[in-house]
Amino acid sequence: MWEYEHSVETSAPRERLWRRWTDVASWPSWNEDIVRIEMDGHFAVGTRIVMTPPEGDKVTLRIAAIEPGESFTDEADCGDFTITTVHRLTPLPDGRTRVTYRTEITGPLADEVGPALGPQITADFPDVLAALVALAES
């Protein structure tokens, strides 16, 4: 298994952050690594999301779990390995919110592909979270 986690803290209300996440069509406005996004339904477990990055290789995800207002999990089934990302909002005692992205690569080829592919997938997490938080704070 390969894993990576990145978090930021913000004064933005959880509800505002959650609205940004559930408005999948707007993801390209705060995630520079998405130039086009398509969804085959509503923001719900089982819905497929197809993201097109600048280099053009489409990425297909499936929403695997949702805890409304708190977290959602997406998965990319790549055959011999699965890429799972948990997006979580954690309330902090001071009224702020911790925003976390956590990615795991699991499956028979995870130890082989994880060290090369994982850092490529997660390299933009600091920038993506910073952009999300800036938008939610404005």
Number of domains: 1
CATH architecture: 2-Layer Sandwich
The name of the CATH topology is: Alpha-D-Glucose-1,6-Bisphosphate, Chain A, domain 4
Order of helices and strands: EHHEEEEEEHH
Largest sheet: 7 strands, antiparallel
Strands, total number: 7
Key descriptive features of the protein:
single chain; 138 residues; alpha+beta; Alpha-D-Glucose-1,6-Bisphosphate, Chain A, domain 4; 7-stranded antiparallel sheet; globular; START-like_dom_sf
How would you describe this protein?
This protein has about 140 residues and is of the alpha+beta class. The chain has one domain (about 1-135): START domain (Alpha-D-Glucose-1,6-Bisphosphate, Chain A, domain 4, 2-Layer Sandwich), CATH 3.30.530. It contains 4 helices and 7 strands; from the N terminus they run E-H-H-E-E-E-E-E-E-H-H. Strands 1-7-6-5-4-3-2 form a 7-stranded antiparallel β-sheet, covered by helices on one side. The protein starts with a strand and ends with a helix. About 20% of the residues are buried. The model has no long low-confidence stretch (mean pLDDT about 95). This is Polyketide cyclase. InterPro entries: Polyketide_cyclase/dehydratase, START-like_dom_sf. It comes from Actinomadura logoneensis. Pfam families: Polyketide_cyc2.
Secondary-structure blueprint:
Blueprint: E1 2-10, H1 14-22, H2 27-30, E2 36-39, E3 48-52, E4 59-67, E5 71-77, E6 82-91, E7 97-106, H3 110-122, H4 125-137
Antiparallel strand pairs: 1-7, 2-3, 3-4, 4-5, 5-6, 6-7
Quickly describe the structure:
With 138 residues, the protein is of the alpha+beta class. The protein is built from 4 helices and 7 strands, in the order E-H-H-E-E-E-E-E-E-H-H.
